[in-house]
Write a structure and sequence with these properties.
The structure holds two protein chains of two kinds.
Chain A lengths: L28 H5 L15 E7 L5 E7 L1 H5 L3 E5 L1 H4 L5 E2 L14 E2 L6 E2 L5 E7 L2 H10 L1 E6 L23 E9 L2 H6 L3 E8 L12 E6 L5 E5 L7 H8 L6 E4 L16 H11 L3 E4 L2 H7 L6 E9 L5 E13 L5 H10 L10 E9 L13 H19 L3 H8 L19 H11 L10 E14 L8 E8 L5 E4 L9 H13 L7 E3 L17 H28 L6 E4 L2 E4 L2 E7 H10 L5 E7 L18 E14 L5 E11 L6 H20 L5 E2 L2 E2 L17 E7 L21 H13 L10 H17 L1
Chain B lengths: L3 E8 L2 E8 L4 H7 L18 E4 L2 E4 L12 E3 L1 H4 L7 H9 L8 H14 L5 H7 L11 H14 L10
Parallel strand pairs in B: 1-5
Antiparallel strand pairs in B: 1-2, 3-4, 3-5
Helix pairs in contact in B: 3-6
Classes of the chains: A alpha+beta, B alpha+beta.
The complex binds FE2/S2 (inorganic) cluster (FES) (2 copies).
The site of one FE2/S2 (inorganic) cluster has 12 residues of chain B, from loops.
């Protein structure tokens, strides 16, 4: 209940870990593996209608009118909605998921395009009909009277005076600056100064389950929505958009088939809410894969210009960094993602003389949004490339260069926040690099390369959001344990981890703990499954509640056995005296006695993340995040010098996770990240031409398949210094953050030259090899 | 609609009958009949989430017309087993952590089942090739490979039931 002490590890005294930290089958695995898990699109209701959405096929155009008369006249069509039907209600807040609006400007987005469209894919009309086929036929009958406008499709062009206006007065969605130390003096003190520009591409989340939901109004006039979302707290934004009281919208999430940030901002919920209110019937929508590509925001393309001053011994004296991202047509979470990229621009390094300017610019491209790594990952990829280039320049081993500059516990970071938890960057990087083994000799056709990358990635939401999470833990009369916590389970084991934590503290096997999750109107609200905060926050609340119940029952048992609470333990379904384990009883017997004494066997706990008050706007100094995770990834690649094709041979993640809860789930995050990061480094890129997506399908947008899998090794270290349950740190994003950078660095090592724009497609790699050959020939 | 037809087939051993127009896919038809354990990730044959066995052969049900399944035997993930009589693949997927969000899992296990029927002792490369039509975004595939190896060993009688590698 109290504000956590940031200076000390918070592992629970007197709980000997029996389940936590072990590799365990997850509680959600059987239902999924037996084909019984019900996802949002699997629900069926009597009298249900089926919805389709008309998305704009142009990126920038005025709408003179939309004629829906033929669609409305089609037999089996029950409702066709356009902006005109919504009137004043046609706005939804896309800012601060779950908190219904924050401080950034212009984050209210039209639900349906009114007088113009600003990106290709913008929703124009909603249809509900007796079947999907009829709904689709109705869409085909809607006629839009267009007037094309010029639009702007480049994040630098859009900032120029006179550029086509997309957003606000100046197309600037957000901007930050950091001014720290004496930048001029820093460059004066440098022996070398190196400047490079790095840029990265759009990446699609490509969760396997497309957006899906069912909405209906129940007998209590409550609007219910069962949706594939990371954030059940969107009920607030739905209610605000429809002008309903918050307590009349009930949003639940069953198992979610992957999110990765793509189901963080509201997707289809408000459309279904409108259709269900209008038709008074249940309405279901499952997005097609093609529409899924355009209905959530992909990863922001970023450009980073790094100017670094360094001494000949490898000490960084100054960094001047310019950061630019393409926000697309609406702000969504771009201001926050830009902030993460700004804080993360210096990687895991201490830089005392620092100057950063960052800008997120609006364009008529698809709006970009949250995606695992959230700006930090792109920033880190650039920073780690620059570190390799510096090491080359000054002729130093790149890991030694990093060691000279790693931020340490007690140091201030980019924004002057003092790092409180353990920083094991060196340990992780050393082990990851060693795991690659020796470098192979090149052949005529294959060039081998090793690469490493480190990172600093936050976990927990921005501190001035004053984030909280609640969980309820109770013991039933037969000794079984229940957790009630509305955390959404998006596939990383969110639900199962809570069972493991409660089971550990209350001495019952996790497989026997029942967790009610994903429904925030029946269970205490846990906050979002985003920002690597779900386990940190909801796990911490569950730990606090479980400890409170444990204390209550053990206090009763201490009296019974005439010992102190500290002399008792709870494990394997028994309570017993620690130095005489024969003296004890089953949990079931214990609970009977406790109940007879009127002992409180339940607890509702709240965990509050450490708050802060924001950044100084002139210097960018202040406390932004609760804490950070540190680690490293290493990759071994081969490059076919004739084709430019890159093969990842080995991929090693080494991370200080604080304390693993389920070791198998931690490894699962590292392994999944290894492939997702590999896709970002080598193959994945959404192609937009004047804002129009050209490769929106799984046959054209290539995510890694089983045939692309390298040998993957996971090295899990535990400093127990994190803010989460048992001293854990967040891992979902952190373990992803260094992957692409390590592969990019390995390719540069292999071919002896660097490619500054991702992804490293065979064409680009081959061009770089040839350019280098030509240069060498000229010399 | 004129071109409709009554389709008779068995799903997981039970006979199922429905009326379908000629253009309806088996995926749409079976999900409409309540077999929602068959997942849909693309409707284009790109992801494998919709895989089922038809007469023992793996197919993408999104690329198969319901009419073509008339008179045939379809097996979904639920037909392979359940708690108490789980298929070795199901047990191994649970034990190794091969299922995360679980959305690819029904199709993945069906593909693995077909692979092991063809090749009871697959090499790692055989497994990679055999599962290459099934996308997974969560796991990085490595635990899936491990699960297939564990199940294959059990099916060949080389390990104790339920023992994970
Ligand atoms: S849904 Fe059939 S292959 Fe993707
Ligand atoms: S477990 Fe999520 S897609 Fe495979």
């Amino acid at each position: 209940m109290s504000t956590p002490d940031l200076t000390t590890p918070n592992a629970i005294a007197n709980v000997n870990l029996r389940q936590v930290g072990k590799a365990k089958p997850r509680n959600d695995a059987p239902t999924k593996v037996y084909g019984k898990a019900v996802y949002a699109g699997d629900f069926y209701m009597e009298n249900m209608l089926f919805a389709k959405v008309l998305h704009s096929d142009r990126a920038s155009a005025n709408i003179r009118g939309i004629d829906t008369s033929a669609a409305k006249a089609l037999s089996g069509v029950h409702c066709v909605l356009t902006a005109e039907d919504l009137g004043d209600l046609n706005r939804v807040m896309t800012d601060l998921p779950g908190q219904a609006g924050g401080g950034t400007k212009n984050t209210k987005q039209p639900i349906l395009a009114d007088d113009c469209v600003r990106f290709c894919g913008e929703p124009l009309a909603l249809v509900a009909a007796e079947s999907y086929e009829i709904a689709q036929s109705a869409l085909d009958l809607i006629v839009v009277d267009w007037e094309d406008t010029e639009g702007v499709y480049d994040k630098f062009e859009s900032q120029k005076p006179g550029a086509f206006n997309v957003y606000g007065d100046d197309n600037i969605v957000a901007a930050y600056k950091i001014r720290k130390g004496d930048i001029d003096k820093g460059f004066e003190d440098a022996d070398y100064i190196l400047e490079n520009t790095f840029s990265s591409q759009y990446q699609e989340q490509a969760f396997l389950e497309p957006e899906a939901a069912v909405a209906w109004v129940d007998e209590h006039e409550v609007l219910n929505i069962r949706s594939s979302t990371q954030v059940v707290e969107h009920f607030r934004a739905v209610a605000d958009a429809l002008g309903l009281p918050h307590n009349k919208v009930h949003l639940t999430a069953p198992y979610v088939g992957g999110g990765f940030g793509g189901k963080e901002v509201m997707t289809i919920e408000v459309w279904l809410a409108l259709l269900a209110m209008e038709t008074k019937r249940p309405v279901k929508l499952i997005q097609t894969r093609e529409n899924s590509f355009i209905s959530h925001g992909p990863r922001h393309p970023f450009t980073f210009t790094h100017k670094t001053g360094v001494t000949k011994d490898g000490k960084i004296t100054a960094m001047k960094i310019k950061v630019t991202s393409d926000a697309g047509a609406y702000a969504k979470l771009s201001p926050y993602i830009l902030l993460y990229a700004t804080v993360g621009a210096t990687g895991p390094y201490r830089v005392d003389n620092l100057w950063i300017d960052s800008t997120s610019a609006a364009t008529n491209n698809i709006p970009t949004c949250a995606y695992r790594g959230f700006g930090t990952m792109q920033a880190n990829t650039a920073c780690e490339a620059q570190m390799e280039e510096i090491a080359n320049l000054i002729g130093m081993d790149s890991l030694d260069l990093r060691r000279q500059n790693f931020i340490q516990t007690g140091d201030p970071n980019t924004t002057g926040q003092i790092i409180r938890s353990a920083v094991w960057s060196d340990k992780c990087a050393t082990q990851a690099k060693a795991a690659l083994g020796d470098k192979e000799d090149n052949t005529d056709h294959l060039a081998y390369g090793h690469g490493i990358a480190c990172y600093q990635q936050s976990y927990g939401r921005i501190r001035w959001m004053k984030d909280t999470s609640e969980s309820w833990v109770g013991m039933e009369m037969d000794g079984t344990v229940i957790v009630r916590c509305a955390v959404t389970d998006i596939g990383a084991g969110q639900m199962s981890a809570l069972a493991q934590i409660a089971g550990e503290v209350l001495g019952v096997p996790m497989s026997e703990v029942t967790v009610y999750f994903g429904d925030g109107h029946v269970n205490p609200l846990a906050g979002t499954s985003t920002a690597s905060r779900a386990l940190y926050m909801s796990g911490k609340a569950t730990e606090l509640a479980s400890v409170a119940v444990r204390e209550n029952v053990l206090t009763c048992m201490a009296k019974h056995f005439d010992v102190s609470v500290g002399e008792l333990d709870l494990a394997d379904g028994r309570v017993f005296v620690l130095d005489n384990p024969e003296r004890g009883m089953t949990v079931k017997e214990m609970i009977k006695l406790c109940a007879a004494e009127g002992v409180h066997r339940h607890n509702l706990a709240i965990y509050r993340a450490p708050p802060s008050e924001g950044l100084d706007p002139e210097t960018g100094q202040g406390e932004v995040f609760p804490d950070f995770t540190y680690g490293a990834h290493a990759a071994k690649v081969s490059v076919d010098v004739d084709t430019g094709e890159v093969t990842v041979i080995k991929s090693v993640g080494a991370h200080d996770v604080g304390q693993s809860i389920n070791l198998r789930a931690v490894e699962g995050q590292i392994e999944g990240s290894a492939l997702m990061g590999q896709g970002f480094a080598l193959s994945e890129e959404l192609i937009l031409e004047k804002g129009v997506l050209k490769n929106g399908s799984f046959s054209e947008y290539l995510i890694p398949t089983s045939e692309d899998v390298p040998e993957i090794e996971c090295i899990v270290l535990e400093s127990r210094s994190g803010l989460g349950p048992f001293g854990s740190k967040g891992i979902g994003e952190p373990v992803f953050s260094p992957v692409a950078a390590s592969i990019v660095n390995a390719v540069a090592d292999a071919i002896g030259t660097r490619i500054f724009h991702l992804p490293l497609t065979p064409e680009k790699v081959l061009a770089a090899i040839n350019e280098k050959k030509m240069k060498q020939a000229a010399e | 609609m004129s071109n409709e037809k009554i389709i008779n087939l068995t799903v997981n051993g039970a006979s199922v009958q429905f009326i379908a127009p000629s253009h309806r896919t088996l995926l749409e038809a079976l999900r409409h009949e309540g077999f929602v354990e068959i997942k849909c990730g693309c409707e284009k044959g790109d992801c494998g989430a919709c895989a089922v066995l038809m007469d023992g052969e793996p197919i993408d049900s999104c690329l198969t017309l319901a009419w073509h399944a008339d008179g045939h035997e379809v097996v979904t993930i639920k037909g392979l087993g359940d708690k108490g009589n789980a298929d070795p693949l199901q047990k191994a997927f649970i034990d190794t952590g091969a299922s995360q969000c679980g959305y690819c899992t029904p199709g993945m296990i069906i593909a693995a089942k077909a692979l092991l029927k063809e090749n009871p002792d697959p090499s790692l490369d055989d497994i990679k090739r055999g599962l290459s039509g099934n996308l997974c975004r969560c796991t990085g595939y490595t635990r899936i490979f491990e699960a297939v190896e564990v199940a294959a060993a059990e099916m060949r009688g080389e390990t104790q039931e339920g023992e994970a590698a």
